[in-house]
Please model this.
Amino acid sequence: MWRLKVSEGGGPWLRSVNNFLGRAVWEFDPDHGTPEERAEVDTLRRDFTRSRFHKRESQDLLMRMQVLIYCVSRLCKLVVYANLGFKLQHLPYNSQIIYCMQYAKEKLLQVQVDLPAIKLVDIAQVTEETVLTSLRRALSQHSALQAHDGHWPGDYSGIMFIMPILIFALHVTGTLNTVLSREHRREICRYIYNHQNEDGGWGTQVLGPSTMFGSCLNYVTLRLLDEVDNEALIKGRAWILLHGSAAAIPQWGKIWLSVVGLYEWFGNNSIIPELWLVPHFLPIHPGRFWCFCQLIYMPMSYLYGKKFVGPLIPTILAIREELYSIPYGEVDWNKARDTCAKEDLRYPRSLLQDVIWTCLTKFVEPVLNCWPVNKLRDKALKNLMKHIHYEDESTKYIGICPINKALNMICCWIDDPNSDALKLHIPRIYDYL
Model:
């Protein structure tokens, strides 16, 4: 059974400024929990899969169960002293734990019974008593989810492209089999299958309709995890081909597929790294962008400048022929560059944007790749790596979000596959799984 480890860490490749307070990592332990608890978890899994099209968001039931039991087992002794007037230390340790667990379940049941949910449609007038009852119920449930170190752990779920980009980073750096155990792979596949829409595609987020971005990235993830043709994969591939193939994936998707070798860099709009060398006072300097924007496009610029492509293993070559309606070698990348599936198009580009991207792609990028101007690119890439290393070191290799964490990890591997930076990145992958 999966066990939630809170405020734990250590070893030469894990760093923390607060002794890992607030860190929550899942670890599989086949002997964790009682047989009844493991059976209950299996039941919860089956129930979620059965109702996945009607109740798609995660409920964090396993985390809630474990956090509650852990907290109560730590604090229950004091409550028992106050309410029952005897000392638990006179009992054997195992008896103490059993008693605390029983007491915890009774208290949880008591909270649910004594504090019923009150809805405005069910009452004629809102009184002070109903407001206080609702507040007590909310505070009781919220405090029950607090971990023993004081923080509130939660699942980083809902966004359906987070898991794929982490898998892509592990694949590219050759650490996929090292980091992911068999149970990790099984759970990741279960998660992706559970959030596949009825039409066969995957959304950008769990509650959304199918998109080319979500469908391509999750399909490729399953294939990289050695999933072969099954009904879900066949339906997913059919959705992709029916809606324009991977050539119609939006810009972020084009970049990620280019990194793993499933799309050509020529089919991307230019993300010139030289932009980071312009004076900072200019409004076009990326350092003036919103923090998430600058810290994500910073490593993207590095990857674009390098035109990096991951290892072309047989699986990647096979996926190339699965994602497109025509042979991979016949795809018109010039046309694909500005192609976006209507399911992914939130706002059409303006004429000004079209002019800017065309100028960057047709004129600026070719010039920057010619000698002696290409010396400037080398300088820009070195400058970007300094920024990337600074970001990694200041966040202890967690990053501002999993997106730039995965991108930075790939950049560190490109810069030096044997670097300490890569070794410091790897343990922090578990923080996002």
Summary: The radius of gyration is 26 Å. The chain is about 55% helix and 5% strand. The mean pLDDT is 87. Residues 61-84 form the longest helix (24 residues).
